[in-house]
Amino acid sequence: MNIRNNRKWFSILAGVTALSLTLAACGSNSGGTASSPAASAPAASTSAAAPTAAASKAPVERTLKDGLGHDVKIPANPKRIIASYLEDHLISIGVLPIAQWGTSKGSKQDYLNDHLSAIPPVPSDLPFEAVAGFNPDLLIIGDTSTVAGDKYSQYSKIAPTFVLGDEINGDWRQALLKVGEVLDKKAEAQKALDTYDQKAKDAKDKLQKAAGAKSAAGVWLVGNKFFVVSEARSSGTVLYKDLGFTVPAAVKEISAAGKANWNSISLEKLATLDADYIFLINSDTATGSEALKDPVWSTIPAVKNNQVFQFDKAKSWLYSGAVANSMIIDDVLKSIVK
Question: How far, CA to CA in Å, does 285 sit from each of 110, 257, 290, 304, 328?
């Protein structure tokens, strides 16, 4: 072999050796072994970033201004919440309270039993001793009258106390969104509202196709007396705003004069009720519903036409919220859409 061939041979050998070393290095990097600097660097970066991401999602204490102008420090992650008569909103965003609204006679919001059966009651007037006995870490109160006088300062000594205020508390949609904000669950509250609104829209369409334009009224019989639901409150908002029923003249008149969710109506006035449908909430079944035996009752047009749909007091018609109103829609559809 001459010198030229030797040089050529060594040149080829050097190229093959360099290529082998390069391939070996690539194989080492792609394997991701613990000893490889290239493999360990990304792992270190990922582990360093993880705590930062977790920390950004960790609950933090926030200060919010409530409906009465108080700056309230909301705990980072409240676990023992009392929100008396606001439980519908809590359930809508996936939260359970430590105690639920109840009365001295044992009444409670029966329509929420599936969610609150294991939750003990707290008296509806929220006695300080009873509230303190539950050791709450947050109180959410709806109406202003509950904290009248020096009651707010007393509740605030038990736990941070956030008052929705009458304006927000009077509108279940606003109340739901506000409770969601207080508990750092805005997205959940908006989703619950959107889901309800879509259900109401679908139900309205079904009712229009099944019955056309009809009028309706919600009537409550309790203690041998009749009450009619307000046009713009409680289940009235479901019937008239969400489902599109026409408001009877008698309901408009009583709603304008009264400020309550349910306003008293005489049997004689009820006889003039020009409603195609009556949704009757009967709280007198245990005592025989004597008022329904009065001859005047049978003269009401909806009664004569067999268009009265009766529900037990345990149903949700006397309440308001995404859960309650959704149940009301179910009742209406089952009554009218065959």
Answer: 16, 29, 9, 21, 20
Question: How far is Cα 220 from Cα 265, in angstroms, rounded to an integer?
Answer: 10
Residue whose structure tokens are 């038990």:
158
**Overall size of the chain counted in residues:** 338
pTM: predicted TM-score of the whole model, two decimal places: 0.82
* Short-list 198, 163, 191, 158, CA closest to 178: 163
**E strand or H helix that includes residue 281:** strand 277-282
The strand pair at 225-229 and 262-265 is best described as antiparallel
Q: Cβ(277)–Cβ(302) under 8 Å?
A: yes
Which pair of structure tokens corresponds to residue 260?
Answer: 């309550």
Hey, what long-range contacts does 92-96 have (CB within 8 A, 24 or more apart)? 92/176, 92/188, 92/189, 92/192, 92/321, 92/322, 92/323, 93/176, 93/179, 93/180, 93/183, 93/185, 93/188, 93/189, 93/192, 94/185, 94/188, 95/183, 95/185
Cβ-Cβ contacts under 8 Å for 313 (sequence gap 6 or more)? 110, 222, 281, 282, 283, 285
Query: Contact, 82 vs 123, CB < 8 A?
Result: no
Q: What is the chain's pLDDT, residue by residue, as a tens digit (338 residues)?
A: 443 444 443 343 444 344 343 433 334 333 333 333 333 333 333 333 444 444 456 889 999 999 999 999 999 999 999 999 999 999 999 999 999 999 988 899 999 999 999 999 999 999 999 999 999 999 999 999 999 999 999 999 999 999 999 999 999 999 999 999 999 999 999 999 999 999 999 999 999 999 999 999 999 999 999 999 999 999 999 999 999 999 999 999 999 999 899 999 999 999 999 999 999 999 999 999 999 999 999 999 999 999 999 999 999 999 999 999 999 999 999 999 97
Q: Residue 176 and residue 325: Cα distance in Å, rounded? A: 13
